[in-house]
Predict the 3D structure of the following.
Amino acid sequence: MIRVLIADDQAMVREGFSVLLGAMPGIEVVGEAEDGVEAVAQVAALRPDVVLMDVRMPRMNGLDATREIVAADSGAKVLILTTYDLDEYVYRALRAGASGFLLKDASAERLADGVRVVAGGEALLAPTVTRRLLAEFSRLGPSRARTHERIKDLTERENEVLALVAQGLSNSEIAARLVVAESTVKTHVGRVLVKLGLRDRTQAVVFAYEEGLVTPGG
């Protein structure tokens, strides 16, 4: 059973998501929060697996709440709720530790699938969100030189897999590109995360661009 906490300052949104998710098999809504401060407290008290987090909330916004939740190492994955897929906070949210993004007008099935994806340790990055991330890197200028010592521990294939992950490809898409089994790709991704000390695929995307392994448009 995947335990979910819903954080949004609009009661109707919280209630709507709660009803939708409550009807889905294998998912249980264990609590709600109306702002970032309450979200952080509820995560500590309820230990949910996934937090659906709005960005714009009073007292503490969703980005700061996400950063505190991730820093507390609670194990909860944060799925950012946005009104538009080109939200201006995409880059900042990924840096804060969010595991992905979901549109507020998502269908019940898409909502449930998104919760399951991030609960399973995957990143939920739609192509439009990935493009937004690339645009932000382009705006910030050239990536800095690769200076992370642990990147030297990656094999040639692991570097290749990391670059494809950074381009937003799923395990199945990477498997097709490299002509290997999907289970092999999953193993490579797992090793990359361990070697680089990264939490999930979302962190891997940010890391790859910041270290210059891949470049916007590259």
Notes: The two ends are 40 Å apart (CA to CA).
